[in-house]
């Protein structure tokens, strides 16, 4: 993307009606310090719009900046420069307490390390966020809908150790949806799963968009996962290299190879 095109994209994103997008990143830059070395630029002027009611997949190799992008979008990591919006809210205007409230009320997170609580049942794990926030009774209808979407009712009273890896991932996905977030941010949601389990997780994410009216922003290295999205954004060396709407797996793979060959093989330690 040329500098002129990038500038025009930023202007368009900045002027767009906020209601059209669940999240927007405009010219976002982020660097990480490396032990004993210089700062490495993980994001290098990223422009990204996530239309409301869609699933957007960010795809790229390890080190492309995918996880950094998601963490910035969720307000978990502050950007060095650029604008980040969730709906009409600019994250730069929020203090740490307000960011925590934003994530609790408006963002669902499905990230590595956000494991289920071993001592709780599946049902208790799923409803934990709303129970802690005191909203369990208010959203009882929604809670039942999300619990049903998880899958087999006979698994709900089991502990996480009694579940398959795919069931644990679906339970974590349901937990991320229980608060009725505007956007669900999922980093490598099918990593480590077999094909069947991955399909079941993807089906739940698609259900969240098509039947529950949510928006999903996910990151992946898998062309098949990306092909299940409505929009695919190709990231490499901290930059957006290409975009694709209504993708199929073959086209995603071709574009991914093309993007990887065009991106410099630098900053491989940028993504965290």
Automatic annotation (TrEMBL):
Coiled-coil features, chain-numbered ranges: none
Keyword field contains Nucleotide-binding: yes
Protein name in UniProt: ATP-binding cassette domain-containing protein
Keywords, alphabetical: ATP-binding, Nucleotide-binding
Species of provenance: Nocardiopsis lambiniae
InterPro entries linked: AAA+_ATPase, ABC_transporter-like_ATP-bd, ABC_transpr_LolD-like, P-loop_NTPase
Pfam families hit by this protein: ABC_tran
Domain ABC transporter span(s) in chain numbering: 23-262
A molecular-function term among this protein's GO annotations: ATP binding
Keyword Nucleotide-binding listed: yes
């Amino acid at each position: 993307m040329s500098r002129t095109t990038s500038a025009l994209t930023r202007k368009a994103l900045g002027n767009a009606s906020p209601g059209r997008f669940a999240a927007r990143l405009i010219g976002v830059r982020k660097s990480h310090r490396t032990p004993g070395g210089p700062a490495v630029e993980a994001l290098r002027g990223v422009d990204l719009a996530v239309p409301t009611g869609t699933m957007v997949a960010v795809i790229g190799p390890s080190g492309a900046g995918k996880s950094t992008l998601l963490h910035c979008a969720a307000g978990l990591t502050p950007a060095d420069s650029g604008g980040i919006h969730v709906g009409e809210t600019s994250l730069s205007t929020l203090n740490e307490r307000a960011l925590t409230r934003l994530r609790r009320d408006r963002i669902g997170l499905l990230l590595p390390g956000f494991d289920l609580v071993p001592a709780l049942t599946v049902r208790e794990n799923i409803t934990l966020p709303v129970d802690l926030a005191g909203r369990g009774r208010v959203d009882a209808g929604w809670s039942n809908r999300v619990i049903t979407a998880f899958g087999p009712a006979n698994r709900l009273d089991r502990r996480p150790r009694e579940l398959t890896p795919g069931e644990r991932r679906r339970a974590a996905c349901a937990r991320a949806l229980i608060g009725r977030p505007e956007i669900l941010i999922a980093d490598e949601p099918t990593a480590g799963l077999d094909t069947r389990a991955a399909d079941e997780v993807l089906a739940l994410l698609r259900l969240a968009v098509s039947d529950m009216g949510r928006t999903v922003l996910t990151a992946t290295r898998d062309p098949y996962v990306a092909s299940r999205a409505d929009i695919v954004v190709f990231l490499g060396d901290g930059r957006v290299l290409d975009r694709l709407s209504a993708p199929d797996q073959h086209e995603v793979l071709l574009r991914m190879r093309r993007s990887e060959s065009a991106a410099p093989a630098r900053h491989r330690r940028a993504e965290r």
